[in-house]
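[job 4471] stage=fold_predict status=RUNNING
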Amino acid sequence: MISAEKILINALSALTAVMCAGAVCAMGQESGAIMEGRYATLADGVYHNYQTFSCSGNGAEYCSSLASEKLTAEEQKVADGHEISADFVLRYENGVYALAGNAYILRTCYLTTARGSKNYGSYIPQQCEYNRDAELLKCMLYEPYEYDERGEQAGITVYFSYNGDALEVDNVDLRGNSGPSYEGCARELSEAKFHYESDSAFEHSQYLSTKLEFMLTNGAINKLWKSLDPDIRAGLKKEQIKWIKKKAARCGEVTMKGSDAALIKMLNCQREMTLERIEYLSSKVD
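[job 4471] inference complete, writing structure tokens
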């Protein structure tokens, strides 16, 4: 027979599991500690990750074909981009925080937690120090191609405060580094805030970016097709129709119905095949 004490312990354990589901206490952290997970820039209700599509910084011509598309308000916000985009993942294990990810500051600098040129662009975690009294998280961020006088990868120290669902930059220490790039980083970061982003929100953000990338690629092949010599186009018409059917059979019809994950898979497949076709058709241009 199960004792009353055992029943009480089981009940408390179950209650704790429900209360902590998806919360910071799931990792045994103290109340008020920083929530683990992904953090990104949030502007006008739209997340901007490091890999989020953006027309900004690519020139006016880059996104010119999107002008003829009927973008939703949400898609337009993604296309317009943001001054800072970031994709940081924070983890807590055995009493230590670790940050992994990258941040891109438009026209100013690129920062990463990855050290060394071999790790450029990778999500390499760096341990951070957490001052519980000051409630500040101290982390190092690096510029991939910048090195200090000792030949070591140059970096800056960033102090984050946590206000419930966001990591807000409290202070930036250049650590003796100077120059327009570092000063620009510090200036832009000093007002930066990175919001917690759920897995579903991240997936939706990726869907929006994938859709815009597909639109650009689709616009490019349509423009290329129209630019072909009429005789060449006539000779390729049956082949082009066959390719369109093959693409639909392999990737699925272009439809915006379904889960974000399913749409991402379909659109990526469509885009990859379209890029291959663009390369082929380009060889037909005189």
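[job 4471] summary: Residues 1-32 have pLDDT under 50 and may be disordered.
[job 4471] exit 0
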